[in-house]
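so im writing up the methods section and need the ferredoxin--NADP(+) reductase record in one place, dumping it here so i stop losing it
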Amino acid sequence: MPHVVTQACCGDASCVYACPVNCIHPTPDEPDFGIAEMLYIDPSTCVDCGACVSACPVGAIVPGHRLDEKAARFVDANAAHYGYTQRDAVRFPVQQDWRLPLAPIDKPKAVRGGPAVIDIAIVGSGPSAMYAADELLKQPRVRVTVYERLNLPFGLSRFGVAPDHTSTRLVMDLFDEVARHPNITILLNTEVGRDVTLDELRAKHTAVLWAGGAPTDRPLPVPGVDLRGVQSATSIVGWYNGHPDFVDAGPDLSTERVVVIGNGNVALDVARILTADVDALADTSISRDALASLRESKVREVVVAARRGPEHAAFTLPELIGLADGSARVWVDPADLVGASVDGVDDPTIAAKISLLQEISQRERPAEPFIRLTFGQTPVAIEGSDSATGVRFAHEGSESVLETGLVLTAIGYRGVPVPGLPFDDATGTIANVDGRVTDTPGVYVTGWIKRGPSGFIGTNKTDSGQTVANLLADIEAASPGR
Ligand SMILES: Cc1cc2nc3c(=O)[nH]c(=O)nc-3n(C[C@H](O)[C@H](O)[C@H](O)COP(=O)(O)OP(=O)(O)OC[C@H]3O[C@@H](n4cnc5c(N)ncnc54)[C@H](O)[C@@H]3O)c2cc1C
Ligand code: SF4
Ligand code: SF4
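--- predicted struct ---
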């Protein structure tokens, strides 16, 4: 039985390059790569060679013979991407007439121009920075200095990814390996703009690559958001992951109901952590303070409220499968799915999400504390005089108030301007063309501050590859004679 990509896939496409028969898609060259919710193995062409398993940094690929019942939905998801239905996938025989080709090792093209030592500053040490460093360090003449404002490296792969997503967090092992390269120096507790200026970096280094991420939340534009008891999901995520900026952001968990506004993967992360079995969380990297607060929590229900219907759910299919089949207790009120149907839905991922939500809605309401996913609820105001007492939602022409003492906004992230660099206010990014900062020679961008806050950890690999290729090409073009 063919290999299957499962929940932990963070889209770095390492498996694509490892696969000898090109059966993993979308590849970075294909148009839907940037928007795909995961990568998928074509069961009809996979030859079960296992090359992708060793290439995957987060253990997301499972050989067919090791799949358990829980992974069955991923068998379907992989197969459905290629137009096969249900469990057709298990029937594909492994092809016998293949052999693993000798690995085509692409030796990176050496940079021919520029100074004897190409000295690059990278601002930030998140995934985009580390993938960029990895790419740059393939050039023996390159030295990299990473400037990171926090006391620990690797950005959101450490301070964003949920502590119970242990496989995804394994990507930090890869970044550790990059950090051990002799030609890289990582300066922690060093904020560019506070401890050193951008102009100083530009004067000192051959080029500067800004990889500072998109650190702020998109604000919820309704009255009452400033009340006590309304917090951003960012602050909660930072709090449970031990982010130094959010040590004091612990929420008041004396309320029985929490309302999370927005239903992307971050909303699901937060809901999962607030309803998780605390003893199971104790074995993860969760902050000890957060763990102690969760032990005292009175929360019985976390409502994840989405403005639009299930066909527009922002969470990805792998995350929903993880929620439905994992240890989380999740529920959907059948009344919330009235009118939802897979009829006429062409996209297999959307269809799979709708059917799984329908399946969940047929289950018994789980024991408390549990997560309730709701749809079609537009928040119009946070109620309360001093602290939040409820959220007023509009739903099909009428309004109602859902009582709660804690409201978490999770409607997306946004980049902030960097003094001295052009900012595109519409997208919340540093203005750039393919990573070259507009009208600012020698300065480049990558990651969320380049393309906006979308995609997975691995999406930053191809993104950084593009920026680094342009950066090196500019160095060559500036003094090609060397
Ligand atoms: C809550 C959350 C959970 C997520 N979970 C997953 C997941 O499970 N799987 C997945 O694939 N993707 C996940 N993602 C997405 C993933 O984390 C991002 O794609 C990725 O981190 C973006 O990388 P980046 O390098 O652009 O930014 P970041 O990871 O934000 O890194 C930016 C770095 O720059 C530093 N910095 C900023 N300004 C300065 C300055 N002036 N000087 C010095 N340093 C500076 C910051 O401290 C930070 O370390 C999650 C995102 C969030 C927000
Ligand atoms: S097992 Fe081999 S053939 Fe199948 S997807 Fe992985 S690399 Fe490709
Ligand atoms: S994480 Fe990377 S290597 Fe692993 S399955 Fe996803 S794209 Fe492939």
